[in-house]
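Illustration 12: Condensation domain-containing protein.
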Amino acid sequence: GFVTLNLLTDYPRPKEVDYCGASVYKKLSKYLSERIMQFAKKQGSTLFATLLGAFYILMHKLTGSQDIVIGTATANRSHPQTHDLIGLFVNTLALRVNLNLDWTTRELVDYVSNL
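Figure caption equivalent — predicted structure in token form:
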């Protein structure tokens, strides 16, 4: 099991969840995008693992929790036989990290890369 993170919100949570979400889009500057990609490359990692590591740190800073579970979708088309098939192969993965606050950035990114 896992514990739901208690994130502070700008208004009280409703007693019943309606699951009506929204999207927020934020375009990063070309400079910042390039810097993040350079950082990921320097760490020997992917952009996804680097940003996911940063998101784990953000969730820790906002909640104080070290045991964090984040859901992500995967295309599930890692086998060449599935590349040309029609259909939805997406799976949702729960990626759990118990943050070690002594980890360096490289150690965190390495750990996240191997989830």
